[in-house]
Amino acid sequence: MGCGPSKKELSGVAEITGMSKKELQDSYKAFKKEAGGSKVKLDKFTKLVATMNTNKGGNVTEYAKHMFRVLDTDKDDMVNFREVMIGFHNLSTAGDEKEKLRMVFEMYDVDGTKTISPENMKIITRSQYQLEGKPMNEAEIEAKVKQCFGLCDLNTDGQITEEEFYKSGKSIAEMFELEGDE
Length: 182
Ligand SMILES: [Ca+2]
Ligand SMILES: [Ca+2]
Description:
Layout: H1 7-10, H2 13-17, H3 21-35, E1 39-40, H4 42-52, H5 61-71, E2 79-80, H6 81-91, H7 97-108, E3 115-116, H8 118-132, H9 138-152, E4 160-161, H10 162-168, H11 170-174
Antiparallel strand pairs: 1-2, 3-4
The chain binds calcium ion (2 copies).
One calcium ion (CA) binds at residues 109, 111, 113, 115-117, 120.
């Protein structure tokens, strides 16, 4: 067929995810079929996430945008097969804990300042409500953010650093875990 994956697209994926060569090739085929190519832009990615979202009345637009930003590790405004596979693996229950924490930290740090502010956390929490199709309740969101800060802002300066999050963010990162392969 002449459309097999290039070495670069697959480099490291098998090692990190523990997939066999066959599984990898099958997933790649499925990805290309779904994505209509070897990379996807945000709009297409959002549609793919929407098809995976089983929450009634959920809107994935905001959540997908932040997920996309974190998955796009080479920052070319596209996510490719490798980025998706490694990112989803890290977020799975089998993923590397430190990588999971790093990804979730980056997801919260929407403005890339290397610290999470309460406002940053509100943005992501709101997007989770939208994803789940829950009615937006600002008081509830505020309370959730407060609770997370109580847990993670170890020196109580109103910002969560990466270091603090590595130490105390495990239970929060677990909320972002993806279901394993069916
Ligand atoms: Ca990319
Ligand atoms: Ca920030």
